[in-house]
Amino acid sequence: MTTTWRALWAETASEFGRPQARWLCETASGCDAAEFLDELDAVPTQRMVAHLDAMIARLRDGEPLQYVLGHWAFRQLDLMVDPRVLIPRPETEEVVGVALSKVAGRSSRRCLDLGCGSGAIGLSLAAELPIDNTRVWMTDVSDDALDVARANAAGIGRAAANVRFVQGDWYSALDGVDPGFDLIVANPPYVANGSTEIESVVVAHEPRQALFSGADGLDALRLIIACSPEWLADDGWLVLEIGADQGPAVAALLVDAGHVEVSITRDAAGHQRIAAARRP
């Protein structure tokens, strides 16, 4: 008996809900959101149904939806994501918003995305800042993560010409690169080793080196903050994503590093999430 996308959507929605079911069906059909609605009464091919079945099986096994789909929306971008990189999250979109505000109106912008992962932060900066006089360096210690970020760079068109990828551990990746960045942004690992606050599905599927950072979760943040004055231009900004309980500790680290205009901003969920400071 033949079926249609309308029927498959309804059947999948009975288990996963209509929004997730639609995303699964769109991905299996190869259609974007608008195209899919025009195809609701079309008959899917055998290969399309097999693709949908495979994705459903992965979801039932507990794999995150974003990895199952293979892509996820982030601000203006549609990013490829897989287990080599963290899943882009709404709070990181807010980090990008703060970072953009710090260099808005400048005549030129040298930006650095430390530990870029999928490229969500750095590619958003490149895509949303003016093309002229913008340069974005993106680093990661993981070659696998950089492969994902490079693939995602194709999605930002002409702005990708302003992006440079370098492999290495935090600032050590920048051997031969001149300091003097107007903006440094990072979403580093900030979960304490052995934390019970983190969801089990995250621990099971997302890269551990992008999650955990020492006994108090601050190891990476300490290094990034301590070395930032060497790499920031005068009046350059450092913007960081942090853990919900790390605001006071991170603010103290920023002050100790000599930064001014230190702020800790809450995200849409009310958690202390974004630290920002300026090098005087």
* Portion in strands: 15-25%
Structure class: alpha/beta
Q: Would you give the CATH topology of the largest domain?
A: Rossmann fold
Number of domains: 2
The CA-CA distance between the termini, in Å, is 71 Å
Radius of gyration: 21 Å
CATH class of the largest domain: Alpha Beta
Shape by Cα distribution: globular
Mean pLDDT: 96
Helix content: 40-55%
Q: Give the assembly state of these chains.
A: single chain
Which residues sit in consecutive blocks of at least 5 with pLDDT less than 50? none
CATH-defined superfamily of the largest domain: Vaccinia Virus protein VP39
What report would you give on this structure?
By secondary structure, the protein is of the alpha/beta class. The protein folds into two domains: 57 residues; 204 residues, Vaccinia Virus protein VP39 (Rossmann fold). The protein contains eleven helices and nine strands. A seven-stranded mixed sheet has the order 5-4-3-6-7-9-8, with helices on both faces. The chain has a two-stranded antiparallel ribbon with strand order 1-2. It is globular. It starts with a helix and ends with a strand.
Sum this structure up briefly.
With 280 residues, the protein is an alpha/beta fold. It has two domains: 5-61; 75-278, Vaccinia Virus protein VP39 (Rossmann fold, 3-Layer(aba) Sandwich). 40% of the residues lie in helices and 20% in strands.
